[in-house]
Amino acid sequence: MDGFRLATSVDCVDSSRQREQIRSTPSCWRNGSATNGSDPLAWRINQTGSRVAIAGLGNAYPLAEQVAAALTAEHSMKATVIDPRQCTSLDADALESLRDGHELVVTLEDGQLEGGWGEKVTAYYANHHVSDSSRNPRVLNFGAARNLPTACRWAN
Asked: What distance in Å separates the CA atoms of residue 66 and residue 48, rounded to the nearest whole number?
């Protein structure tokens, strides 16, 4: 549905702020814990690292933390770990901040890869290419394949 906004987790001081944020857009919110009143659409950078950024959307977020821990343990590399908190819009400020010091951005999602959230991240960097090629991170997307299990296909 065009213009529909879905948030996977939200930190907001009160519901009146949520209503104000989504007043003009059809939206669905999953309630989160109230903390600092930050922008509910902004991505949360939970660990700051360098060279690699791992963004885990929704149920894939714990995997992002596990991959970052493995990079630290096995390669002494501290990755940036990001919780996007919602899948319908990109946080351009967060994406731009990754240009400095990150060569690779990895997106993990439990939904369909083709046409999914990770492809939005890839398209963002492709459409906002900068002349200094060292500031254009490579993006890898991981998610579900687009196909129906055999049991779900229509029988002839």
From this structure: 15
User: Using CA atoms, how far apart are residues 65 and 26, in angstroms rounded to an integer?
Assistant: 31
Written as one letter, the residue type at 65 is E
Whole-number Cα distances in Å, 42 to 7, 45, 83: 10, 9, 9
For 16-68, write each residue's pLDDT tens digit: 555 555 555 555 555 444 445 567 789 999 999 999 999 999 999 999 999 99
Q: Return the closest-CA partner of residue 85 out of 43, 145, 140.
A: 43
What digits encode the pLDDT tens for the residues 114-154?
Answer: 888 999 999 999 999 898 888 899 999 998 776 555 544 44
SS3 sequence, 25-50?
CCEEECCCCCCCCCCCCCCEEEECCC
What is the rounded CA–CA span in Å between residue 95 and residue 156? 47
